[in-house]
Amino acid sequence: MKNLFPTEKFANIRTPFYYYDTRILRQTLEAINAETRQHDNYFVHYAVKANANPKILKIINEYGLGIDCVSGGEIEQVLACGFPANKIVFAGVGKSDWEIELGLDNDIFCFNVESIPELEIINQIAASKGKKATVCFRINPNVGAHTHANITTGLAENKFGIAMEDMERVIRLAQSMDNIAFKGLHFHIGSQILDMDDFIALANRINALQDRLESQGFHPEIINVGGGLGIDYSDPLAHPIPDFKAYFDTYTQYLHLRPGQTVHFELGRAVVGQCGALITRVNYVKQGAAKQFAIVDAGMTDLIRPALYDAHHKTYNLSSDQPAEVYDVVGPICESSDVFDQDILLNRTQRGDLIAMLSAGAYGEIMASGYNCRRLPIGYTSDEL
Ligand SMILES: *Cc1c(COP(=O)(O)O)cnc(C)c1O
What we know:
Layout: E1 17-20, H1 22-36, E2 42-47, H2 54-62, E3 66-69, H3 72-80, E4 88-90, H4 97-105, E5 110-113, H5 116-128, E6 133-140, E7 162-163, H6 167-175, E8 180-186, H7 196-215, E9 222-226, H8 244-254, E10 262-267, H9 269-272, E11 276-287, E12 292-296, H10 305-309, E13 315-317, E14 324-330, E15 339-347, E16 354-357, E17 378-381
Parallel strand pairs: 1-17, 2-3, 2-10, 3-4, 4-5, 5-6, 6-7, 6-8, 8-9, 9-10, 12-14
Antiparallel strand pairs: 1-11, 11-12, 11-16, 13-16, 14-15
Helix pairs in contact: 1-8, 3-4, 4-5, 7-8
The structure holds pyridoxal-5'-phosphate (PLP).
């Protein structure tokens, strides 16, 4: 499909590479701000694990979003890109001592704590620095998200968070610690969630937990509902901007807040997913016994989502307007899972054609690896090409 992308600008760029349409990114950020503007107690933290490309981060920072980090490396990256430390929340089941120190040294907004042993270490390290660490507890709400098993995080069987039955005990413990300031509750049930009923289930669960806490005299200030809003992978051209209205309206309607509470959101995929595409070139078209393969120069090292999550990225041939044929699009790596998609329609394809895999802005470039000693793909924005 010609004219979908400015292919003439791609001619001299080494493939595979990521291409980020900053117009879509900016429209997405404007849509988020349009929905949250009327709520002065709503705060959106971009989940930087979805995409940490500095060019993308700088644009996100222009729109005033906070940040959700899950590692010390992410904290370093966002500080280097100009995000204020007091808008950083820091989650993760296995924070290392140096990561906790980094968070404390920079006075980040909040640690989202996932266990008692972690709480004890944060208290200890904060004491050694003469500081008080602000913490929320990540509670495992045992709410299932109707999404792929590898990206479901809110079930009792998952490794994440503190069990609901331990909540009061952990809060009491925190309140007894000199170098911990308990501030609230954190949740995150999974990713690529398109059914608002899953968020309603989370809101209902939070309401019940809040009632329980209130009856015992606990008053959390922060309610962090995590992220997880999905994007339309099957028709990104029709739906480049996720339905933020439905998402925020769901929480506005179903989450019952106490006076003075702030609500924090941690959106990753929904912010950056649709602005990015992986651009790759066809090396060979091979006629197999039963199949026709388009062998491209990108592999699972560049975009691992199909291999890891059975994901499908809408794929177009940017160099051809000839009648469509059926192809398996595969990479060059010596792994049977190095398959992008099977039995899909592409305009008739030949060696040298440029192929675009859409909706690759989230968990794409950031998950690239050097397996097979492959070069890492470079990310370019539409502003610089
Ligand atoms: C991954 C993650 C997010 C973001 O998830 P998305 O599905 O990309 O919105 C938010 N919060 C936490 C704690 C996470 O681990």
